[in-house]
Amino acid sequence: MSTTQPLGRTAAAPPLRVRDQAREAATLIAFSAAMASCLALTLLLLAHLGSQG
Questions:
Q1: Among 5, 12, 16, 17, which one is most buried in terms of CB atoms within 10 A?
Q2: For 5-42, what is each residue's pLDDT tens digit?
Q3: Dist CA 48 CA 41 (whole Å)
Q4: 49 — phi, psi (to 5°)?
Q5: How far apart are CA 6 and CA 45, in angstroms?
């Protein structure tokens, strides 16, 4: 069974405003960018340490 409601929201709750949806999207984009950057930095560090040995 699939729903289109975000987690934590009930059927009686009013729909999210566009501004709230945009804020959630921006938060997700920022989190994804931060995680990708951390992963890339970790891989670069491991590659650098591996080439010295």
A1: 16
A2: 566 667 777 888 999 999 999 999 999 999 999 999 99
A3: 10
A4: -70, -35
A5: 37
User: What would the 3-class secondary structure string for the chain be?
Assistant: CCCCCCCCCCCCCCCCCHHHHHHHHHHHHHHHHHHHHHHHHHHHHHHHHHHHC
pTM summary value:
0.64
Residue type, 36: A
CA distances (Å), 3 to each of 10, 11, 14, in order?
11, 10, 15
For residue 12 the two structure tokens come to 């009686």
